[in-house]
Specification:
The protein is mainly alpha-helical. Helix content is 34%, strand content 7%. The protein has helices spanning 17-29, 43-49, 63-70, and strands spanning 37-39, 78-80. The chain has a two-stranded parallel sheet.
Length: 83
């Protein structure tokens, strides 16, 4: 019997091409630049990835709005907006 092992550090890439390109550009310019980086997940992608129904009150409308929300978090993180 063989056991399958999952690498705990593996993360699936974001579904948004915009976010993938942005992360790639950040990584290309600064390989350590991805640390402390998060991104929004646009509602158009959740139905294909999550079985549970997700209801959004309101999705942010700009990078500035996301940055202002991120400043309220209790830790230092940069959040990229997925338009």
């Amino acid at each position: 019997m063989s056991l399958r092992v999952v690498n705990r550090q593996f993360e699936e890439p974001p579904e948004s091409i915009y976010i993938r390109r942005t992360l790639s550009n950040i990584n290309r310019s600064n390989p350590n630049g991805l640390a402390g980086l998060m991104w929004t997940w646009h509602p158009r992608y959740h139905q294909s990835s999550v079985a549970t129904e997700i209801v959004y009150e309101r999705y942010p409308e700009s990078q500035e709005e996301v940055a202002a929300l991120a400043q309220q978090l209790p830790f230092d993180v940069r959040v990229i907006y997925d338009p």
